[in-house]
Records
---
Amino acid sequence: GAIGRVCMPTSKMGWWNWAKTTSVEYLLRCSLSKVDSQHFWDLMDSFPEDAIYAAEQEILSGLLNVYKIRTDTLFYDTTNFFTYIDTTNEHCDIAQRGKNKQKRNDLRQVGLAMVVSKEDYIPLFHHSYQGNLQDGTVFREVIEKIKDRMQALGLNQNTHTLVFDRGNNSKKNLAIVKSLGFYYVGALTPYHHKEIIDRATQEMSAIIINNETLAVYRERSTIWEDEKTILVFISDRLKAGQIRGVYQSLAKKEKSLKELQQELVNPKGKKRNREELEKKIKTIAAGQYLKDIVKWKLI
């Protein structure tokens, strides 16, 4: 499997088709007809869990030594993936139900936290965790392990910056990051810092980065009893995506309101009193960014 990942990255089924064209059958000293998915899982069972960290460490040390990958900026993020592990399966406790990114909340999922390099997105750290844990909780569990991995790889904390999103924010988490000596870039929720956004709106200045002009505002401000450098900028790509999302939401709202209108004029349609109708319209008109756009009045 590892040889196939290096030579021809593909699925487990695709690996078998690739392996038939190589000498891997001779190297394994067994027939490929005996190498099925169960064989794959049996091999995984023979690999001790506590050996994973050491194996990663050795592979990464060799990788950084050979390819001289720049690691001065490190990205941290979490994701999850659903499984088909049965609800009654009590042997696996890592797969739990939670908010699934693929909207499969009906299935048990496994969480994955990773740190990758900005250059080429090379994974430098990973942590698997129970699928019902929140991002902030996982961050507290792994941040010290990330420091240990950096030290083991000989990465100087003073020349590296860890970047993570606002899902990991909390007063306690940022205090831990500071105590561990990290340089970091996080994110704040604009809704919770309206006074900063108001100042930024009035005092934006233009800077050029990589031939791209950005509107930026910078200040020193106290966040959670600690002074930090705050940088506010407008992302044209994010702005364009949000505008598309607003138009898509408006189209759905309009469709739902027209369907409600057809129900009301239909003699055989469901009868509603004013209170029920107002509640129905409020539900349809609700949505992020839409409260200041959609105006309605029931007459």
---
Amino acid sequence: MTINQRILVVDDDEQLLNVYRNILEPRAKQVSALAMFTDEVEVEPVGLERAFELATALQGVDAVTLVEQSLVDNRPFAVAFVDIRMPPGIDGLETARRIRDLDDRIYIIFVTAYSDRGVDEIQQTIQHDVLLTRKPLTRDEILQLAHNACNRWTQDQQLVNRQLSLEQQVQEHAIARLSMESLVSSLSEGLVVCDAGGMITSSNPAAAAMSRYDEEDILGMSVGGLFPDLVMEDLLSRVQAQGAQQNLSCQLLCGDGAQLPVLLSASAILSVAAHGRAQGSQTACAFVLVWRGLGEN
């Protein structure tokens, strides 16, 4: 993610705005010929220092308008340097409050020579990501504040984007699961899922109806209890080694003791092998067994 380097400066002193421009706007690196000759600095190709994109306003209402436009353009500011006293308009605290109402992400750095606004009042009004500094600031202090705020804004947005992506994935998985559950429930064939040890972990309504068990009773049963004429351990091993096994003729042992002839198919749900096995190998974490009555289409 590209670092957001958009900075807003609000101060009623045009000379101070020019100071910010001289410090933050891009300019060519300068290396004196004497320094290069005496090898006092590491010689680099002439280029640009890290370039911030600067917008300035003399009054608070103008700054609020700039923030509104930045959101319309989808080019938000990362940080705002805000003077406290800016007559005749709204002061810096009110300016910052209105900016925050528009964009909760922006970092606020108050720069003032006065103490008429206390830390507690500022914190209560702005809530978070706010800093109070005193004039005059040095060039290095302004640069460091700008770098840190822009980097932090970008890191915060990366975290937000990751969280949104995870939430979207969870939502997509939930929708897919509901769709699959709906599909499985509508099947006329019996279906059970068992773990690698053969214990049934889920089933569909048709499985309960055909086997004459309650759905709750099927869960936790050994799948071998439903199909006693098959050596279930051997079947699951074949599925793991050879792939799906189709249309196996066997008997379904029902809950009332009756036996029904069925055609059974079995397949594996695969997962990447546990750490320590060959890279890229897979192992069965569960098995799906589907059956229908013999003679059904």
---
Amino acid sequence: MRIGNYFGIPLKVNPFFILLLAVAFVYGRLGEALLLFAIVLWHESFHILMAKAYRLHVTDIELLPFGGVTRLEALLQLNPELEWLVAIVGPISNGLLVFFAYGLMPYLDVDLKWFDFFVQANVGMAAFNLIPALPLDGGRVLRSLLAKGRGFKDATRVAAILGQVLSIVFVGFGAYLAFLGQLQGLMYVFAGVMLFLAARQEQKNASYIFMRYLTHKKQELRLKRVLVAREIVATVETSLGEVLQHVQPPCYHLIWILDLEGKVIGFISEIDLIAALFEHGLAHKVGAVQMHRI
């Protein structure tokens, strides 16, 4: 549900997040819930700033019961180093708040109870997001590392499975607490279910990212009817990552492939290149890609 804009970006709130606020109000903890809301926005703001620094378009922000999600209209998966940077600044931002809190504490008249809650909330959010499981920031960092050698699809599968395993642990722990009569156990169960669904969705989305890219390229060609082409020459031993460094949007690219003696043996299109990247990763050799032989 959209509730407004944040720096010109649509800000959405998951219905379960509103339910969380309602429960907090009933139990007299609305102040803490609103402070968490502010901390989540601060966390997501750093994702946005890093994305803007690399001229990536942010489509929207959604607040979830266990945090937030900043969605980008960009194929970050083609550049694992960039996905790593955009992801890691979130937990770092929470660390900065803890640093500032302790630095300013001697000069501010703050209730120690609120100070402790503020620090614990930021440490908890940073630690939770550093867990290497999708859809958490740590999962995106893990995917970016795995994608270099295993391809985006397989890297997403591994990180998403870890996310689902983590969610099952949350549900089990929450059920145990509830069995002992501790109501906060229900929050662990709730967070676990939400995390499981989000991790499963990440795994499903992996199959559609290349299709989205392919559809975009076809629409662009159909609308413009003519695209400026740019040619790249690579040998059979060149890695896909090395070729990708020379791709310059908005041109359409054709990659001529030469054997080690300099003879042209075929070519691949930009779409072939992206498909191979998603399937095999940056280290895969151009010569191993199915090419159009001449």
